[in-house]
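User: I'm putting together a teaching handout on how multi-component assemblies are represented. Below are the sequence lines for each component of a complex, exactly as they appear in our records. Could you produce the 3D structure of the whole assembly as structure tokens, so the students can see both representations side by side? Please keep the chain order the same as the input.
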Amino acid sequence: MEGDQPATHKLAIFGISGRTGRELAKVASLKGWEVRGFVRPTSRVEGGIGNCQIVRGNFEELDRVIETIADSAAVCCMIGPAPNRSCPMEWLARTFARWQYEAARDREGQERIVELSSLEWTIVKPPRVTDSPPQDRVQASSLLRIGLLSKISRADLAAFIFDEAQTGRFVRQRIFVKG
Ligand SMILES: NC(=O)c1ccc[n+]([C@@H]2O[C@H](COP(=O)([O-])OP(=O)(O)OC[C@H]3O[C@@H](n4cnc5c(N)ncnc54)[C@H](OP(=O)(O)O)[C@@H]3O)[C@@H](O)[C@H]2O)c1
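Assistant: Of course. Below is the structure of the complete assembly, with chains in the same order as your input.
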């Protein structure tokens, strides 16, 4: 957190190989932070990701996970399943799958583990994410209304997450964002 940061500003990113993960790495690097990212053995990061240090491993390999977060001022997890259907198809599929019961339960379980931890956590909940240019008008609140058409660009989402990692404005809150 700001004012309380180690001299070298280090950020650890899980899911750095993803589109929003890469955006976050870019934002943090531009601000002069050192970024270390964890990727799985199958992740496609040939050629690297900017100047970021990449640690390859599985989540079961605790030493790799610890190596990733060592000395970090903040840790961001950008991991999530990649939707591969169009939005209407996704909606239809989800309806038939009863809103992906297992996946939804898994996500709730993940969030509960984070919330019950003693960490200074923030859970950021975006609606549909896009590759549009940043709009710089992100709305963020635990009570923010999210509709079918709500969206946020990955660039804005990454900037919001990086800002939150620095300032801790929403520590111990689940925050909905759109912009
Ligand atoms: N796309 C949307 O519209 C949307 C909407 C709301 C929330 N979100 C959430 O926002 C976050 C970023 O989204 P995005 O669109 O940037 O995602 P993305 O480009 O698909 O990237 C997903 C990242 O998660 C990793 N990942 C996926 N499954 C994994 C697994 N089983 N084990 C370990 N790593 C795994 C991927 O690693 P590999 O490179 O190894 O595959 C990749 O780094 C995700 O948490 C997503 O669920 C997305």
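A couple of points students might notice: The pocket of NAP is lined by residues 15, 17-21, 39-40, 42-43, 78-83, 126, 128-129, 154 (CB under 6 Å). The mean pLDDT is 88.
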